[in-house]
Fold these 2 entries.
Entry 1:
Amino acid sequence: MPATTRYSAAWLLPVSAPPIAGGALLCDESGRIVAVGPDSTVPTPPGARTIDLGQAALLPGLVNTHGHPELAAFRGLLDDLPFDDWIITLNAARRGAALAPEAWTDAARWTCVEALAAGITTMGATEASGGSLEAFTEAGMRGIVYREVFGPDPAVAPAALAELRDAVNLLRLHETELVRVGVSPHAPYTVSDELFRLTAELALAEGYPVAVHAAEARIEEQLVLDGAGRFAAGLRRRGIETPPRGRSTIALLERTGVLDTRPLLIHCVRVDAQDLRLIALSGASVAHCPVANAILGHGIAPVMEMRAAGITVGLGTDSVASNNRLDLLEEARAAQLFQRARLGSAGELSNADALRLATLDGARALGLEARVGSLEPGKDADLCAVSLAGAHVLPVHDPLAALLHSARASDVVLTAVRGEILYRDGRVLSLDAAALGGRVLAMAEALRRARDEWRARGAPPPFEARPATPGGGEA
Ligand SMILES: [Zn+2]
């Protein structure tokens, strides 16, 4: 149960209003924000706990719209690989390690430890295991867990859908006020048109939120537009036909009904003006993952054009398998830097807008803006505090510049969800980080061995025919 708490800090960043120097925030015992403003205007009710954060910025909890918490043990295992080799190696290690389901839940818990220490209070998680539902609930975090479904062969679409329906029905028994369940038809190179159609129908009928990896890679584009390229060759080796499927991935998602679900579209690096019109018309939103897109060489998403078209854009780290850090301040900075470099203009994506991507717009992208994303009376007290006292941050002429361009995730000193403090001064309070760390390192070692054994046998070509593995999947 959260206590009535009055926070004060050198800077308060409501996001929905300009920064407040010497600000304070009061949250009640239901975890709701009841007052925000200059210190002198915010009351101190009798018996309230008071927390003076000093030379720090207090801001809304960061919203990571896209990650794969179950993949925590893959950090650093797949670096410097081209995209198709990256996916194949990830799946080979996953299959070869043959870990128990609880291991994937432990990895998701470990991601929660890292996220809370980085000021992240809400996550959109796409994953095969669904372990994040338990992990988020134990950690006290907020999120949407999109259960993934795979099947590039149209013949397996009905069976894949039945498996998804059963898995989601089970997961839904454990939904809470903070953690919801959704579905994720993974991507055009792992999901047939028929499976996209069936999943969209299920989501619309049941009201499930939907997330889909879309328009990420050049080899995905080659497959969708021309039925060509390395993904297409791999699918044909499995006996799966690869006819052209549309003028773009977004057109494919429109044709198969996925856009009707107003999905969270993950990546959208390779989109043109026509795609942006379709996305805007549908009311879909975008999870922009600038660092992961750069690491895998996919390119830079046209964020400024998306925003100009009226599309809601949030930020995502993606998994630590493709972005070794879970640092949303870095993502906001990268989003700004990449747009400025791409367009040759220092005027693109102001610091205020970059912070908005990491908070309020991320909340909007997940449909949670009525509850979180800004510091306003009536919203839930999902908060993070970032120290601005380090030598690498001082002096602070402008709190937004200090936060986005000088501070780092490691400067976070406090994280709270709905008024409950979950991280403070270097300690996650809701999970046993030390015990988890040992289990995740053992898991990482099993994955590394499986990767090395698979490589020693000689890497098979992309998407070679192989039996389906329960709990396995493409990232
Ligand atoms: Zn992803």
Entry 2:
Amino acid sequence: MGAHHPHDPLLRGHLAGLVAAVLFGCSAPLISTVTRAGSALSIAGLLYGGATLALLSVRLVRGTQAETPVGRQDWPALAILTLLGGVVGPMALVQGLARLPAATSSLLLNLEAVFTLAIAVLLGREHLGRRGLLSAGLTIAGAVVLSEGSLRGTTGVGSALIALASLAWGIDNNLSQRLSLRDPIQIATFKAAAASLPMLTLAMVMGHGFPSVPVSLELLAIGALGYGISIWLDLLALRDLGAAREAVLFSAAPFVGALFSLAILREPFSATLLVAAALMAAGVVLLLREQHSHWHRHDNLRHAHRHWHDPRGGDPHHAHHHAQADLIDTPVDRPFWHAHEHQHEQLEHAHGHVSDAHHRHSH
Ligand SMILES: [Zn+2]
Ligand SMILES: [Zn+2]
Ligand SMILES: [Zn+2]
Ligand SMILES: [Zn+2]
Ligand SMILES: [Zn+2]
Ligand SMILES: [Zn+2]
């Protein structure tokens, strides 16, 4: 993957990540207006129910794409990310939102980026240059500025709950990145369905309060965009950018949420909010400007993923020969996408790259 590619994966990844962040960012303030309409379990269940419906629709509309399906070895990671990202995260969020002003919670959700980054860099061997680390530092500073004034009484519990949600999603993001060469629609649909069905069932069995029909429909709609479509786009960004970069990009979500709270929900504007927003904005701009390019070696690697071939030459990472079975439904004279297991030969060259699945070299 890299500079030789006809469809620039970096541009595509940044776009997907940004749209995912905007959709998710607007969802938190909207949910905060209805946190008292039902129990945390029923609200989280409805949100992921909406996500499931949206992803099933995307699947219907787009038809199947040439992607590598989830395999048996992927199930443990998928189960853990579903539990943390689909159940623990949203339940802690809903309960935290009920205790804090929407703008404050939105900006505190920046901790998700911090946790994602720390895990990606410290445990996942992803690389972030000096600019990237500085960018992460600014984001953390913004979150600290925000929480300082609100660590008293019940808002302390609220902040802790938002931090817990952020940690759950930070682990979820890193596990999702590990699965990012698999079919993203399949992963997103599984996660949404496997999270919503048990939560809704449990809420009904335990006799939890459910929101009224109009509020339930609203939650389904918020979940469809803020969770369903957003999770899918986020998986595409994780594939193209790696978890560390996706995280800093995704930290645009809280700005969108805070602006949305000010503009639509007419929450009071504070100087703290402005300082925090400025720190975080500087962090995102810094990350987008970081370029990383150097001479490196791709080692022999055999795995399956969706990739691109151009008969006139093109991507040097995908010059492999094909078995007849891998060429069914592919044109002979035009470039095409397909997915199958293939060998990456050892290759040394220089090109711009990020810490995606093909670039886990040390620096
Ligand atoms: Zn590198
Ligand atoms: Zn590959
Ligand atoms: Zn490949
Ligand atoms: Zn191929
Ligand atoms: Zn390369
Ligand atoms: Zn490379």
